[in-house]
Write a structure and sequence with these properties.
With about 325 residues, the protein is an alpha/beta fold. The chain has two domains: about 180 residues, Rossmann fold; about 120 residues, CBS-domain. It has a five-stranded parallel beta sheet with strand order 2-1-3-4-5, sandwiched between helices. It has a four-stranded mixed beta sheet with strand order 6-7-8-9. Strand 1, helix 3 and strand 2 form a beta-alpha-beta unit. The chain is elongated, with a radius of gyration of 30 Å.
Length: about 325
C-alpha cells in the first residue's frame, strides 16, 4: 500500500506528464502534414469520419463534434460496428481520421485493409509512429509522452488522451482558418444555448412589422396603433423615413404638458407627442450588442435599420425569448 507522500504526488504526476507531452508537441508538430491533410479534406468536400476504440474512441467523438460545429462535416464510426456493416456509412468522398495511442488497436487495425481497398484517405492520431496504424496512414499526427501517462499505475490513458484531444483541436482550428469560417457560420451551427444567443443577429429575431403612424395622426389614432402593436410604443413615420417614437412615457408627459398649458390633449398629434431621433441599430448587428444598448439607455426596444431606413423593431421580449438576456 502506498504511503501518504506517494499518494499526494499522483495528481502532480498527471500534470507533469501532460505538460511535458504538450511542450514536446508544441516544439515539433508537423505543420506541413497538417496543411496537406486540410487541403485534402477541403478538396474532397466529403466528411471526416472519426474512429477509435475505448478512451481513444471517446476522444474521437469529441473531435468529430468539434469539426462538425466548426464547418467540417464529420461523424464518429465505432470500429467494431464498422467491421459488422457500419463501414457502409463511409462514402468515396469521405476521409478517415483514426485515433489509437498504440497504433495496434485490434478493431482499428482490422479496418485498414478495407479502407485501403476502398481508396479512402487515412490519417492517424497516434503515439507510435512505428505502429501499424501510423504506417498505413497517409497523414500521421504523432505525439510523444516523455513522462509517460501520469497514471499512478501507468495503465490508464491520461496524457495520451489529452494529446489526442489537442491534436483534434489543432486540426479543427487549422481547417477553420483555411476555410475562413466565420462567427455567422458558427451561429448557424449553434442555434440553441448561450453560444447561439451571443452570435445571433438582430435581423433574425426582429419584428418585421411594427406599429407606425403619420406625424399628423391624432391622439386616438396613436392610442389605437399602440394598443394593436402590444409593444407599448408606436413609431412616427413620414413615408419610409423615421421621425420619432411614442411610448407610454411620452403620452404621460404630453398629458402633463396639456394640463399645464390648458390644452385639450385630444387635439395633440403624433408629431407633437413623439420623441425625435430614437435609438436605432443596424440589422446585421449582434443581438447581444442590441441588449447592451438597451441596458445602457434603459429602454425596451430599438428600431432596426437597413441602409439608413427602418426595416424592423427589436423589443426586449425577443431578446429574453432568444435567451440573449
Amino acid at each position: 500500500m502506498k504511503d501518504e507522500n506517494q499518494a499526494s504526488g499522483a495528481p502532480h504526476a498527471v500534470l507533469v506528464a501532460a505538460r511535458s507531452a504538450l511542450d514536446d508537441l508544441a516544439a515539433g508538430w508537423d505543420q506541413a502534414s497538417v496543411e496537406a491533410w486540410c487541403e485534402m479534406v477541403v478538396a474532397r468536400r466529403g466528411r471526416v469520419v472519426l474512429t477509435g476504440m475505448g478512451k481513444s474512441g471517446l476522444i474521437a467523438q469529441k473531435v468529430a463534434a468539434t469539426l462538425a460545429s466548426t464547418g467540417c462535416p464529420s461523424l464518429f464510426m465505432h470500429p467494431a460496428e464498422a467491421l459488422h456493416g457500419d463501414l457502409g456509412m463511409v462514402t468515396d468522398s469521405d476521409s478517415i481520421l483514426a485515433l489509437s495511442n498504440s497504433g495496434e488497436t485490434e478493431e482499428v487495425v482490422r479496418l485498414l485493409p478495407s479502407l485501403i481497398r476502398l481508396g479512402i484517405p487515412l490519417a492517424a492520431i497516434t503515439g507510435k509512429p512505428e505502429g501499424t496504424l501510423a504506417q498505413a496512414a497517409q497523414w500521421r499526427f504523432i505525439y510523444r509522452l516523455p513522462k509517460g501517462e501520469g497514471c499512478p499505475l501507468d495503465l490508464a490513458p491520461m496524457a495520451s488522451t489529452t494529446l489526442q484531444l489537442i491534436w483534434g483541436d489543432l486540426l479543427a482550428a487549422t481547417l477553420m482558418d483555411r476555410q475562413g469560417f466565420t462567427r455567422d457560420q458558427f451561429a448557424l451551427n449553434h442555434p440553441a444555448g448561450s453560444l447561439g444567443a451571443k452570435l445571433m443577429k438582430v435581423k433574425t429575431i426582429m419584428h418585421q412589422d411594427w406599429p407606425r403612424v403619420a406625424p399628423e395622426a391624432p391622439l386616438m389614432a396613436v392610442l389605437a396603433s399602440m394598443s394593436a402593436g402590444h409593444l407599448g410604443m408606436t413609431s412616427v413615420m413620414d413615408g419610409e423615413s423615421l421621425l420619432g417614437v411614442i411610448t407610454d412615457g411620452d403620452l404621460r408627459r404630453a398629458f402633463q404638458r396639456s394640463e399645464r398649458d390648458g390644452l385639450n390633449p385630444l387635439s395633440l398629434t403624433a408629431g407633437q407627442i413623439m420623441t425625435p431621433h430614437p435609438a436605432t441599430i443596424g440589422e446585421d448587428a449582434l443581438a447581444v450588442e442590441a441588449a447592451s444598448r438597451m441596458e445602457a439607455r434603459k429602454i425596451t426596444f430599438l428600431l432596426v435599420e437597413r441602409q439608413g431606413r427602418p426595416c424592423g423593431l427589436l423589443h426586449i421580449h425577443q431578446l429574453l425569448e432568444a435567451k440573449v438576456l
